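Forgive a beginner's question, but would it be possible to get any protein sequence you like and the tokens describing how it folds?
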Amino acid sequence: MNHSFNKGFPMFPRHSVFGVLISMCLAVPAMAAGWSHYGGDAGGQRHSTAVQITPVNVGKLKPVWTYRTGDMETRADDMKYSAFEGTPILVAGSLIFCSPFNEVIALDPGTGAEKWRYDPKVTTGYRPANQFVCRGVTPWTDAEAAPGDLCATRLFMGTVDSRLIALDAPTGQPCLGFGADGEVRIDPGMDLIWPGEFHITSPPAVARGVVIIGSAISDNRRVDAPKGTVRAFDARNGKPLWDFNPVTRGAKDHPEDWPRGVAARTGHANVWAPMSADEARGMFFLPTSSPSPDFFGGLRSGDNRYSNSVVALEAATGKVRWHFQTVHHDVWDYDLPAQPSLVTLTRDGKPLDAVVQVTKQGFVFVFDRDTGKPVFEIEERPVPQDGAAGEFLSPTQPFPVAPPPLVPQTLSLDDAWGLTYWDRKACREKIAAARSEGLYTPPSAQGTIMYPFTGGGANWGGMAFDPESQLMYINTSRAAHLITLVPSENYEAAKAAEPNEEISPQLPTRWAVKRELVLSPLDLPCNPPPWGMLTAVDLSDGTIKWESVLGTVRDLAPLPLPLKWGTPNFGGPVVTAGGVVFIGAAMDDYLRAFDAATGAELWKGRLPAGGQATPMTYEWQGRQYVVIAAGGHARATTKLGDSVVAFALPE
């Protein structure tokens, strides 16, 4: 499945201050705060123990170094199909990240000076289904290797041309004993329509000496598409160990959800978002996506498990320990878009290891990490029916009782928004002409309002969690899609009539699909602002602590007006023990800092390009740095660039 949606975003105009000071005086950390994995740790908490930057002094942050990859000059033609979504990690004394074109680059953490650079020379000159993207690399230290051995500590990366690569972390040299000369080529299992139909965008996960990789697959071309297989390899030598295919394994374990013959012709249900690893338990946690195609399920009747599920796998064998399906028989492209975060909650005065999964619908699902039992009650509730001819729909869908939805889920005539009377009138007419019965209204030939749209709610940036306050922080987008089913025999004519619209064939089903944002004549969303939010949720009781608007239309409007309406956003937050939440993500080229306790926006730093990436923070030689990739997002129409920018307090 795709990372969000295929048409781009619209172009449209715990800690008190006293408590932070006390903690700084009393705390004597055993070591400097680091950032060892894409999500901060292997479980994706996105939390840092750094306390140097606080709500008191964050306003003094300044850019201290900027590194440029050079892609704007050397890859100008391919940049228009790219997104710089990478998050660096601090490992082997270097700050290491991957570019959208899978170059792995190591920098001096204090100065940003380049230390080494590895280029796998990925294939370019075409348009990948989900852009040229590399979100991160994953470290692993071989306990059996002697200190100083080449590849005793190594980095794993998946590539846009479907390779799994292993590099020596200190030097960037390929680990020649892994696969063939340091790489394993991933076989999609069938002929591709074009090279960009199948690729890898998110970092691998490693546990107990097993490295696993997912995939990103083009949406809505065909039912008989590549399978969404998660593949496991020996982290030392690259030998295949096991694989997990949500469709075929789902049909084997839950035949009631995959009638005879359905699984054989169904693709996708892939894991394109980041995965989590629990080394102590020897478990992986996967966020799976929807089966092919997204918007019509007439050829895949049943609930279609393990698609759209949180799946806990045994690292050694790939055996399913537990799973929970968040959408039955998905026909809305409501993939699980984000890393399942592994956190420890306090329940009834005792610690509880949990898994937290955020969704495009704006839901937060919380599970016991060992059993999959919901921490907060989940109800099966009736949802709209009367799908398109030939469709099979689930009569109910799972709704968490707590936390409450983080975004609105119904768009009515009364919600129609616009700058002028005529703008609002046009939006009312669009909504009135379509089916709009709330969440899970099925796609239709009449046209169906999907709210939230396929970009979320939440997306791949995921959440951050503060273990002390038990607060999670999550950014969400608010926009609507109009989904219209087109009889398959009319597909070619519809595509010819509207060549600039997103119309996909969904072959060989009876329905093609047209997907468009619900916008006014002024290209503003028809749903009311704010269009981007940052929310703090108390996971001790499932309540919302605060909400803040995220972003302005400064870099989107014809004039640079800093109207605080929020914007749709890509990338996630990080939270520090110093009481600050850092986030880019919005479409106005800023890195922002919020008070973790109150949600007040405290500071923003201007970026040279779009900051559609998750930042990270670390301490190096007594100084705390906050770093973000600022390279923009072509599909979201933000300013493109090739920079990595570091901020710090004045010395």
Summary: Residues 3-30 have pLDDT under 50 and may be disordered. The first helix runs from residue 17 to 26. The CA atoms of residues 140 and 296 lie 41 Å apart. Helices lie at 17-26, 71-74, 76-79, 246-253, 421-433, 491-497.
